[in-house]
């Protein structure tokens, strides 16, 4: 299990509108084996999880370390995780969230929480955030070496930089 990938997938999950099964299937690109198992109940549970998880990213963005830790701990109590050692490749043992009887929603929630908890323990609770670009509300995981990420995407970063440049040009022109 690549914990950073699962942490980033949790941000992607928060940034995805899961209105129906088709939207959930669209979110699961590269995981076709899950498509047939997607249900309306999964969509409802994932929308609820999105509302529960967003405050963790907001707490991190606000520098509230205890809020991040308490939020993740509370979510792990509400959504117990059952990790298993995967041996489908004996030369690459790694952890997976147990999936034998888990629904698609339970699998995604478990992966998100295990990935985020590990990321917070390894890199710190300040590695989650909400995009600084106006009016974007997407979240992100900051894995940059100098912890400098402020935007959810290159598009938002570019848009904010262009807006700042234009504001500076306008200020110079009116001065």
UniProtKB/TrEMBL annotation:
SUPFAM superfamilies registered for this protein in UniProt: Jann2411-like (SSF160904)
Domain Zinc finger CGNR: 127-169
Domain of life according to the entry: Bacteria
Pfam families: zf-CGNR
This protein's name: Putative RNA-binding Zn ribbon-like protein
Natural source organism: Nocardioides ginsengisegetis
Organism lineage: Bacteria, Bacillati, Actinomycetota, Actinomycetes, Propionibacteriales
């Amino acid at each position: 299990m690549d914990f950073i990938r699962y942490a980033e997938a949790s941000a992607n999950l928060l940034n995805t509108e899961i209105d129906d099964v088709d939207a959930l299937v669209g979110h699961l690109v590269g995981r076709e084996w899950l498509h047939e198992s997607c249900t309306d109940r999964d969509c409802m549970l994932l929308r609820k999880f999105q509302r529960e998880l967003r405050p963790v990213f907001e707490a991190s963005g606000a520098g509230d370390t205890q809020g991040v830790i308490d939020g993740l701990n509370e979510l792990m109590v509400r959504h117990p995780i059952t990790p298993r050692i995967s041996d489908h490749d004996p030369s690459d043992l790694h952890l997976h969230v147990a999936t034998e009887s888990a629904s698609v929603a339970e699998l995604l929630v478990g992966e998100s929480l295990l990935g985020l908890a590990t990321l917070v323990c390894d890199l710190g609770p300040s590695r989650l955030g909400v995009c600084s670009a106006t009016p974007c509300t997407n979240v992100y995981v900051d894995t940059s070496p100098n912890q400098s990420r402020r935007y959810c995407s290159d598009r938002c970063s570019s848009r904010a930089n262009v807006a700042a440049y234009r504001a500076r040009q306008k200020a110079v022109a009116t001065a």
